[in-house]
Amino acid sequence: MPLHSKDDIREFIDDEIYASSDLSTTMPKFKFPQQEQAAQHIYSAVHDELMLDGNSRQNLATFCQTFAEPEVRQLMDDCMDKNMVDKDEYPQTAEIEARCVHMLADLWNSPESANTIGCSTTGSSEAAMLGGMAMKRAWEKRRKEAGKPIDRPNLVTGPVQVCWHKFARYWDIELREIPMEEGRLIMTPEEVIQRCDENTIGVVPTLGVTFTCQYEPVQAVAEALDRFEEETGIDIRMHVDGASGGFLAPFCAPDLVWDFRLPRVKSINTSGHKFGLSPLGVGWVIWREEADLPEEEIFWVNYLGGNMRDIALNFSRPGGQVVCQYYNFLRLGREGYRRTHTACYDTAKYLAEEIAKLGPFEVIYDGDMASGIPAMCWKMKAGEDPGFTLYDFADRLRTRGWQVPAYALPANREDLVIQRILVRHGVSRDLSSILVEDMKRVIEHFEKHPVHTTMTAAEASGFSH
Ligand SMILES: *Cc1c(COP(=O)(O)O)cnc(C)c1O
């Protein structure tokens, strides 16, 4: 091609991106593309498409972190190539993981935090699976030793997150989930004991129930199980789902006894990417003592060099989130976590007060530090008909980018629709005040234009968790 032929070479010089031929067509959606294209062009196409996602900082449905310090972003970049499972190749990342395990054991008052066992996971779901399997194994071992059958295991929980439904279904365990009742939305010791028998592999209280954000009474349940053991000889272990609460209660409700201070609590899971303040993709499971993790759950792997202990379900996994967890522990310490979370509780309280003042709503939970997570939820006042439902309210708030989920509670309170706001790191007081103003405008809008919608829960809350 002659160099002076300008029209021909136009295709090859750095065009203004959106005038380029790459971006003058629509991108393939279902067929595997045939040819390569310029990185810069494709970056623009993909980056632009991501604009259509909701703005995560305005997503008040999620429990997960949406704010990160620049140092966290830098560390994530530094760790791009570190595989958590290659403990021989990346011994320092492995060492950092081990330090986090011991620090968490210490935070949760393990009698021997330096010798406890545990691991990082991709989140609480994987961690719950590992904790659940250990309960099942330990129960099976005792049953076998006593010459008793192991074909009908059951698990007793309050209203749980879907990960426990998965655990029960994957491993053929009967889930005895305590249904909600009028005036009682979480487990009580009496309801737990009624469902326990010799086939119960464990009891799982949740520290921060997904639906209502409240802490279940771990200590009272442990004491009830102590009495149950005295009466029946049946010893039932507990695993606490501390997905949120595991990183809240130690800092903001230090007197609440829910952790390894209770000998019956054998394992705890938490989500590092929720109130652990780390980027998405890290959870933890810790056993009270090494003996509480059955040997069958530990795998030894020699093909990465060395003979490495592997507990997690996943094999390859990114290391950055774990490294950032360690960063957060060092950066914040107990005091920093307490201050960060306290700011969120204060904002939840502020929102509860303001939303109660709006008129049609009754606050169910107001973000009380001693009894739940920094969040708040409300329902429509009994007998109130403001011309809209909570689903309409959620839908209209979305026009300003706010994602505030409305959803029906699980069994037996499916009749009760509530709306919830999670106050996370970065949901500031100022942003919250803007949200309240937007809520007022939405209510005024519905006063002028009442709707009586037939939108279903599923349609209206496609973004709920
Ligand atoms: C979020 C959550 C889970 C699942 O945790 P992931 O980290 O998202 O896998 C389990 N239990 C409770 C109580 C939760 O809040």
Question: Could you please describe the fold and organization of this structure?
Answer:
- This protein has 465 residues and is an alpha/beta fold.
- The chain contains 13 helices and 13 strands.
- Helix 6 links the parallel strand 2 and strand 3.
- It is globular.
- The termini are far apart.
- Pyridoxal-5'-phosphate is lined by residues 63, 123-125, 128, 161, 163, 206, 208, 210, 241, 243-244, 271, 283.
Tags for this entry?
glutamate decarboxylase activity; PyrdxlP-dep_Trfase_major; four-stranded mixed beta sheet; PyrdxlP-dep_Trfase; alpha/beta; lyase; binds pyridoxal-5'-phosphate; 13 helices; 465 residues; Glutamate decarboxylase
What does this entry show, briefly?
By secondary structure, the chain is of the alpha/beta class.
Mean pLDDT: 93
| CATH architecture field of the domain at 73-329 | 3-Layer(aba) Sandwich
Oligomer: single chain
Question: Within the CATH hierarchy, at the fold level, what is the topology of the domain at 73-329?
Answer: Aspartate Aminotransferase, domain 2
Largest sheet: 4 strands, mixed
Q: What molecules are bound to this protein?
A: pyridoxal-5'-phosphate
CA-to-CA gap between the ends?
58 Å
Number of helices: 13
Order of helices and strands: HHHHEHEHEHEHEHEEEEHEEHEEHH
Strand order of the largest sheet: 1-7-6-5
- Give the name of the CATH superfamily of the domain at 73-329: Type I PLP-dependent aspartate aminotransferase-like (Major domain)
Percent range for β-strand residues: 5-15%
CATH level-1 class of the domain at 73-329 = Alpha Beta
Q: Which descriptor suits the 3D outline? A: globular
Q: Which radius of gyration do the C-alpha atoms yield?
A: 25 Å
